[in-house]
Specification:
alpha/beta; Spore Coat Polysaccharide Biosynthesis Protein SpsA, Chain A; 8-stranded mixed β-sheet; 3-stranded mixed β-sheet; 13 strands; 23% helix; globular
């Protein structure tokens, strides 16, 4: 089964279109909604038996929400889903067996994305768009402008086995979480508990694995419907990007 992790501040309509699709799919075990703005919670989420509502006292932001979701998830196969996304869930029949510890992140190709209204989902899916998908290995050395990731939308919907998740550093609340996990999987990295400045107790060791794009998918989204409200925080994270990545040994493509 798949645990779906969805941080939300309820600023896009896509989530309420996505929930019944996830509820009715046999491979979805639970949908963890990390609620970062309980003043706007849509109470209709409680109609769905697979929803696990995790209300927060204040906005903990997307990367800490991902960390929390992974800690809470019952199942080893994970889906990280933006709340402004609707994707063709028929592709899960193909992807399910491909989410293994032998692979890193699986994220949709840039060509899979479109800006159509969520109301067009049924029409597009009925025509077969996004149902028959396949994987393609990514090459970080071919993507200089996005620090090795295939494209800027890659993190909107991603699949990963829990053994391949690396907890995102606390300095990054909004940005760079997807890139951090992506590069940590691409390189041989020791990750452990920081017990003093520049000293880590190694608790986890992984050999590198390949990350992938999901080709011929269908993802309907309204990009940046939430993060554009937090420019000051984003600027702070950009300023420390190099130092934090250097601390984890992924500041340069090796």
């Amino acid at each position: 089964m798949i645990s779906v992790i969805v941080p939300t501040m309820w600023k896009a309509p896509h989530l309420m279109k996505m929930l019944p699709l996830l509820e009715n799919h046999s491979l979805i075990g639970e949908v963890l909604i990390i609620d970062n703005d309980t003043s706007k919670t849509n109470e209709d989420i409680h109609k769905y038996s697979k929803v696990v509502h995790l209300p927060q006292k204040e906005n903990i932001y997307v990367n800490p929400a991902w960390n929390l979701g992974v800690k809470t998830a019952k199942f080893d196969k994970l889906c990280f889903l933006n709340d402004d996304v609707v994707f063709n869930v028929n592709c899960l029949d193909t992807l399910y067996d491909l989410i293994t510890p032998e692979r890193g992140l699986l994220g949709f190709s840039e060509a899979s994305y479109c800006g159509f209204s969520p109301e067009l989902y049924d029409t597009l899916v009925s025509s077969g768009i996004g149902s028959d998908v396949h994987l393609q290995e990514t090459n970080i050395y071919e993507n200089e402008s996005t620090s090795g990731m295939p494209h800027v939308y890659y993190g909107c919907v991603m699949f990963l086995h829990k053994e391949r998740f690396f907890f995102i550093p606390q300095e990054f609340k909004i940005y760079f979480g997807d890139l951090f996990v992506y590069l940590m999987n691409a390189f041989t990295i020791n990750q452990g508990e920081e017990i003093a400045p520049n000293l880590r107790l190694v608790t986890k060791f992984h050999k590198p694995v390949r990350n992938y794009t999901i080709e011929d998918g269908l993802v309907i989204t309204k990009m940046s419907s939430t993060v554009k409200s937090f420019n000051e925080q984003i600027d702070k994270e950009k300023a420390i990007f190099y130092d934090v990545f250097a601390r984890h040994g992924i500041h340069k493509k090796q």
